[in-house]
Amino acid sequence: MNIVNIKNSFNAPVYHEKTVSSTMDVLRRLASEDAPHGTVIAADFQTEGRGRIRGRVWEMERGESLPFSVLLRYPRAEDIPSALTLRSGLAVSLAIEDFAESFYGDHFDGMIKWPNDIMINGKKAAGILCEANDGDVFLGIGINVAQKDFPEHLRNKATSILLSINKEQITENKEQITKNKEQLKVSREQMIASDLRFLLLEKILFRLYNELETEAGNDWQIRLEQRLFKKDEQVVFAEGAADSGKIVSGRLAGISERGELLILTNEGGDVRSFISGELRMNL
Ligand code: BTN
């Protein structure tokens, strides 16, 4: 496994593989070999990338996305920070914004769609999968970095950082891109992806560390609600498992301190909290 030479704010190794089944599988193996808290494994391509909902795959083209997993080790399950997936989403959205600003001079808002999606301009740009085993957390993050297009069934739902930024700005990096392209002999799109993906990763690790391990993260709930996708809007929510058939309609009121979704229901007019389920997009 290669070591990537970037700063990891957790002060742990960052590994890279060209192709893996899933970075989650590799991370579990690393954990069994006593890898330290904050260890990262990133890949160019996953043959069996997993989504949060069982049976859903995380689709990607080689080099266009950034799939990676971070190992967070706590003494016991009770020590795992509350609302970890949401707080990680907050860190990812902030890092994506930092990245767009520093490399493209562009700004967009990364919104968090409860519980695990990062949205840009109403479309999904990243997803988070959080698995835990006692005090070990396997935090899997997939970011659409440089896709210019998506398969038909995702076209209206997915976006990438590259698609979201103001195209004019990209040309400012052209010189650098051309220089590296000669060495790496990859397409321009892949170049944008592979060249800058690790810098994005560095920014994410910085933000993640800040959110989870410093006092700066303490007011996460307020900041998350400011970025909560569809906050104060009418929503349709499928409660529990994807196929439960239990539908709730109401106003998205916010999130609790434990990270539950709060909905002021149309029927009954009470605020209900949910630990699992999915917001329906086609209202
Ligand atoms: C979702 O949106 O449902 C979660 C997607 C998580 C995808 C990432 S990519 C890196 C890590 N490895 C996986 O197999 N899945 C996660």
Describe the structure.
The structure is a single chain. The chain is an alpha+beta fold. It folds into 2 domains: 2-223, BirA Bifunctional Protein, domain 2 (2-Layer Sandwich), CATH 3.30.930; 230-280, SH3 type barrels, CATH 2.30.30. It is 29% helix and 28% strand. It has 7 helices and 13 strands. It has helices at 23-32, 84-104, 161-164, 167-170, 174-184, 188-213, 220-226; strands at residues 2-3, 14-20, 40-46, 65-73, 110-113, 117-120, 123-133, 136-144, 234-239, 247-255, 261-265, 271-274, 277-279. The strands form 2 sheets. The chain has an 8-stranded mixed β-sheet, sandwiched between helices. A 5-stranded antiparallel β-sheet has the order 12-11-10-9-13. Strand 7 and strand 8 (136-144) form a beta hairpin. Helix 2 (84-104) packs across helix 6 (188-213). The protein is globular. It binds biotin (BTN). Biotin is lined by residues 22-24, 46, 49-52, 56, 58, 67-69, 116-117, 127-129, 140-142.
